Amino acid sequence: MRVILLSGLILVTGLLILFSPLASAKTVALWLCDDSGGTLKDSSGNGHDGTLEGKTSFVEGKYGNALELHGKPDCVKVTGSNDLTGATAMTVEMWLKAKQQAPYHIPLSKGLKGPGHWEIYLLAGPGHFSTYIPDLGDFTGSHSVTDDEWHHCAMIWDGSSIRLFVDGEQVNDWGGLKGKKIVVDDQDLHIGNEWTNDNWHTGLLDEIRISDTALDAKDFGFDKSLAQVAVDKIGKIATSWGNLKNQSK
Asked: Tens digits of per-residue pLDDT, 78-102?
């Protein structure tokens, strides 16, 4: 009986953990973009809420709502924090929908261009999914995502390489970075433009997540909403608890 009760306690604790921050301990920020009003809520439980600027609004997205950005001055500003940068490991992922345009799109940008800065950008013209991290290099991708269709885009930094994924498939890989680190600081993070108020993203953004580890592609929020992933996990735990109770009868 004690074993059964202890197992039940562990399962209940797991449920509580999953219900509160929707994501694992690896997640440092999770913006599902299912909000309304002037605040973009962080569902990770780490308090990285953002403030909408300009005419940024919530519209129908890939899953639920999404952020709609129309260019300058539309963006979301998130107060800086050390945990929004992974010195030796980090995964940044999002759903985006953008049309081709002459200038750069900057969906995400942290800090001034220099030590500690990182950004996700779409190359001017062809719209290739890319990332620039001054401490590591400029990594211009080869896969265009500016076709006005939804694409899941992810950047993985694993301490020795940078890898880019589009729609769950690896499209670029740069090695030879072992021993390098990204400077960790508390500069602000901007969603929708470069930190210096330049190179504005035009289009939709949804389900943005920053993790403090190099995730496996199978752990991306690609096949379903990250909120649904959490619900599925809760369902599995509830089923396991039900089976356990039946076995104890």
From this structure: 999 999 999 999 999 999 999 998 8
pTM of the entire structure?
Answer: 0.85
Sign of CA dihedral 182, 95, 225, 36: positive
Go through the domains of the chain in sequence order and give each one's CATH number: 24-219 (2.60.120.200)
Angstrom distance (rounded) from CA 158 to CA 129: 18
